Amino acid sequence: MKQLANQQSQLPDLRQDWEHLLVEQFQHPPGATNCHYRDEHSICLSLAPRPVRLLQIKGGRTHRGLYGKGDISITPAQMPFFVRWDGDDNYLQIRIASRFIQSVASQTLDLNPDRLELISEFRTRDRQIESIGLMLLAELQQDNLGGRLYIDSLANVLAIHLLRKYTTTKTDLPIYAGGLTDRQVRQILDYIDENLERDLKLADLATLLDLSQFHFSHLFKQSIGIAPYQYLLQQRIERAKRLLKQPDSRSATPTILDIALACGFSSHSHFSQQFRQLTGTTPTAYRLKSI
Fold first, then answer.
1. Mean pLDDT of 274-288
2. Which of 7, 134, 213, 237 is the most exposed place for a label (fewest CB within 10 A)?
3. Which fold has domain 239-290?
4. In whole angstroms, what is the distance from residue 231 CA to residue 180 CA?
5. Are the CB atoms for 170 and 33 separated by under 8 Å?
6. What are all long-range contacts of 234-240, with beta carbons under 8 Å and residues at least 24 apart?
7. pLDDT digits (tens, 9 = 90+) for 83-119
8. What is the pLDDT of residues 224-253, one digit of tens each?
């Protein structure tokens, strides 16, 4: 990525760099900037409570207009763009790696990645992108509470949506019906159970069955009834319950943090928040009731 000289400092209020996504929230007074992302496609989702007048120049075209909450602009990788805004602005920027888009196109849609061309959009409305954007914003605000598997799932859904709706090559998404076989389900569930403490990737699970990440997620949900990241969280909480119920031992009573790390949570607070969300109580209170 290369960002050209800015007329105004563009420091995000919130920022998270995942493997395929970089997500930032910006809140700025009137200003202007030039940008050029060499290896990433850029999506901007307006969060402004009041419409903001913008001037955009990209791809040899100029657009002026009011951008309100929910308006989206899309800029393909390698396309320089200039933006000037006349009022206090608040927006979410999602940068998705072009190599990831190419990989999803090849593995999931059987498209030639070298012929992909993303379409530039100055201002559009797209409920699915807006929904994904708001879920990513929630992850920023909650310090990546959903975990790696959750972000991978959102990244894949976003990539598929961009490929289907915002490329010059239109394609249908092949759907595999029927779910996973019983053997595949056992293989995946055993793998998850044996690796609950790891920060599992969607690719880890899909590779076991030689499926694309998108189709693995689709078939898993058909078979189990919930998404992979939801199942992983459930199993981590169930293991935590068992560890919290273990009788006290003067020599080795695991702390709440010990249990959190053993179950794949990044911190005491992360574990407590997820535990309370699923059980309605805190780990400490649950342990006291189990004594």
1. 92
2. 7
3. Arc Repressor Mutant, subunit A (1.10.10)
4. 15
5. no
6. 234/278, 235/192, 235/193, 235/196, 236/196, 236/263, 236/264, 236/265, 236/274, 237/263, 237/274, 237/275, 237/278, 237/279, 239/196, 239/263, 240/271, 240/275, 240/283
7. 999 999 999 999 999 999 999 988 888 778 878 889 9
8. 999 999 999 999 999 999 999 876 555 567
